[in-house]
Amino acid sequence: MDESLSSTRPAGTTPDISPDEVRAALRDYFATRPGLDEVRRTRDGRQPSGFDESSWRTLATDVGLCSLGMPPRWGGLGLGLDCLVAAVEECGAALYPGPVRAAVLAAWALGEGALGEGALGGLTDAVDLTGTIEGLFAGMAVPGSTLGTEIAEPQSLPLWRAGAVSGVLWALSHGVVAGLAVTEVRTDDGVAAALVILENSADRRSRPTVDFALPRADVTVTDAPALLVTEPGDTTALQRFRDASALLRAAEQVGGAQGCVSLMVEYAGVREQFGHPIGSYQAIAHRCAQTAVDVVGARGLVTAGAAALDRATFADPDTAVHLASLAHAAAGETYLAASSSLIQVSGGIGFTWEHDAHLHFRHARTLAVAGGTPAQYYDRAVLDGCLDLVTSGVGGNETVNPVEMASG
């Protein structure tokens, strides 16, 4: 990220940085360090961890990715969720395989997100909070997040008692090397969100996966130190955590879809048939255009959801739930369609192992079922009453227009 975004901030203050600035800075970074290069190395068996750990440390330190959502009192930038989804989206567009989403979610949960100012008091005895934060900043504590815990049966979740967690963290992203897990746990008083410190003694079993951009493992822990980031049984705080997780996942999907659009347009402009670029033919041009429009709509829902969740108080607390569900569903569908269109537009070469299209195709299908399918999220939103948003608007006085939200 442009050094000015992370180093010109007066101590203890929140900088005036827009989501567009975050996007532009990360876009510049990936222009010289393509994320696809790392995915290819994993595909070819040359990168067992699934990502280059030195490049991750660069993103975490020089770029300051892990500090974006951390509050200023802990040395972070204290940016809102609108900037965090922008950062995850750009990393998704580059198909960067590092633990971006888990790191951003961990910082958000530690900061002003799920608990708010001072709410961590009394919950940190079992965890060196300062060390955890420093590890995130330095890129040394590789974070991972579990997939689908929001739809899991509580009894399948690991058990938290007296500051320690025991059980299995199923499908933990980057679980083979992760030192920190963002997950849900069950307690004697209900389900809560937690950060679990993974020690070397943890039993890690890599999961076979078709997705080269998201390695996963089942990690078994016994009395692992853990920090609760929501109060046990506090369903409102837990839902905010789930909404943030869903929005960040949706942002990654929007970014992936945008990456597909860029590859489609680039190829359609240079590949010629009958003496003309194939992009000049309606069948190709319309497919590229429709995919681009779908991306704008999905991005608008993610942006609207982040804005709703960022509000400390709002008249209708269900708004963030509705928008998070709609954003996850729309982004999942959009990335699925975009990755398929990329293969079709690329023609015969799009079906080959050497082409990058199948890397997006695989990643889109993994993310589309994480925590539930697009159809399930649409059903959830409708059952929760999201259709009221169309007639009454967010908070009762403004309508949700995804295109306007995306264009700012």
Fraction of residues in helix:
40-55%
Tell me the CATH superfamily of the domain at 235-391: Butyryl-CoA Dehydrogenase, subunit A, domain 3
CATH class of the domain at 235-391 equals Mainly Alpha
Taking pLDDT < 50 over at least 5 consecutive residues as the criterion, the unreliable ranges are 113-124, 391-408
Structural class: alpha+beta
Radius of gyration from the CA trace? 21 Å
- Run of helices and strands: HHHHHHHEEEEEEEHEEHHHHHH
**Number of helical runs?**
14
The end-to-end distance, rounded to whole angstroms, is: 21 Å
Query: What is the CATH architecture annotation of the domain at 235-391?
Result: Up-down Bundle
What profile does the largest beta sheet have? 7 strands, mixed
Share of β-strand residues? 5-15%
What best-fitting shape do the alpha-carbon axes yield? Answer: globular
Strand segment tally: 9
CATH T-level topology of the domain at 235-391: Butyryl-CoA Dehydrogenase, subunit A, domain 3
On the 0 to 100 scale, the average pLDDT is: 83
Biased composition (Polar residues): 1-11
Protein name: Acyl-CoA/acyl-ACP dehydrogenase
Region (Disordered): 1-20
Organism: Gordonia polyisoprenivorans
